TrEMBL record:
GO terms for molecular function: arylsulfatase activity. CDD domains: G6S_like. This is Arylsulfatase. PROSITE patterns: SULFATASE_1 (PS00523), SULFATASE_2 (PS00149). It comes from the Bacteria.
Amino acid sequence: MKRYVIIFFLYVFSVAYSQNKKPNIVIIISDDHAYQAISAYNKNHRYIDTPNIDRLAEGGMIFHKSYVNNSICGPSRASLLTGKMSHKNGYKDNENSSYNSNQQQFVNLLQENGYQTAWIGKYHLGYDPKGFDFYKILIGQGYYYNPDFIEKGKGKIREEGYVANLVEDAAEKWLDERDAEKPFCLVIGHKNTHRTWMPDLQDIGAFDKAKFSIPETFYDDYRSRKAAALQEMSIAKDMRMGYDLKMLGDDFRVDNNFKRMNEEQLKAFENYYKPIQKKLEKSKLKGEKLAEWKYKRYMNDYLSTAVSLDRNIGRTLDYLEKNGLAENTIVIYTSDQGFYLGEHGWFDKRWMYEESYRTPLLIKYPKIVPAKSSSNSFVMNIDIAPTLLELADVKIPRDIQGVSMLPILKNPNAETQNELYYHYYENGEHAVSPHFGVNNKRYKLIRYYKRVENWELFDLEKDPQEMDNIFDAPKYQEVKKEMMKLLKKEIQEYEDFDALNVLFEDQEFKKYSK
Ligand code: SGN
Ligand code: CA
């Protein structure tokens, strides 16, 4: 009898324990992966099938209005880790900032609360990650083939193979070897789909048969948008024939990406691209015809690189399922920002315009998040840190600027914020002027400074493609006044003093803030 009583109590304890068990966390963060290139976001599958990312939408929530506070790699990752805007975490741009990894990050707080943590893959915040029991990170942007990693305690290691496969292999190895008694938080940082868009060998040419029609705004003339007219990210004029589109002549080893390859890898690329180059040379394309040829080649390379990414996301999900971890693991898929797939004639990111400002976000956590749910509520990358802390039952520090998405995860129609604030700082490659701005669901107000001094206002309902700057339109003067007030309020709430200085010097602002 006594034995049965003991067994009964053991059973009760183990049920109670498993119910209170802290959730595991897997964040998969890719690089430059546009929501336009995810089938879950485009039900008609305009460009691509991403069956594995779509599994997260099937089993969890897809966010249609998820944004970044500063649309570029390092700053976006710093905001993910700290839950703070760039001016607060100190990492404003890739060119001049250095990341202070000794500051408060959500991973350290998880560690203090019994979690084991790891970052594997692209990190891009220097070489001294803190808050991770293990790391194995790419050097800088990393290479698509045979990349070098820096592993905690081991230094630099070169590995043979395709980057996304190697990153996933390392992630699974870490999961295999972890302490199964403790909850874990693993960040998988993929290099895909960053420039120069190189797929795994098996995916080369995956879109040869696809037909792409150019985006409606491909021939944008940037009328009414000064900063946009000055950028250097146009497919027609700035995308490089050799480096980007791989028209590299007889020996591809002139390019660093190919120099690293072994014979098999090199041959696979040369065999595919050389005939394309021959054909192009014969055709003597010029002007719009050549621009559209470039667009199609770009799409072919970009999307096949996304296929290689999606396959590895599938491997992560399979691993969790096979190892009985799917129920108690929060899986987040996101990218460090959005990307242009020819909209406005562009590649790259950086702008507060929709395609680069918005980023994919899908969250699966069967215990809380309803399957197949879809949210149009505003969320930001800085909201991820407080959300995870709350889910892990760790107190959210007061200086975190993001807001927990938990109400939305429970009910996709809940709203946690009505307006969003943005600030982009880098003033270098691709020639995008620094700018800050505010938007609600209807309007967007942007102030450019440093490279270009200018204002833009968009009516997102009437002009979702942001082609028509109505800042000076007489009929929008009331809206302008309201949006200026909103901008000031957001700047003050976030304590962004750089932006406040620009605003206080501004003649238009002085007029409208009376
Ligand atoms: C590199 C790229 C740019 C890209 C930045 C930032 N040039 O400098 O095209 O905008 O990275 O990207 S490349 O010729 O080196 O590929 S980010 O993802 O790190 O933000
Ligand atoms: Ca990026």
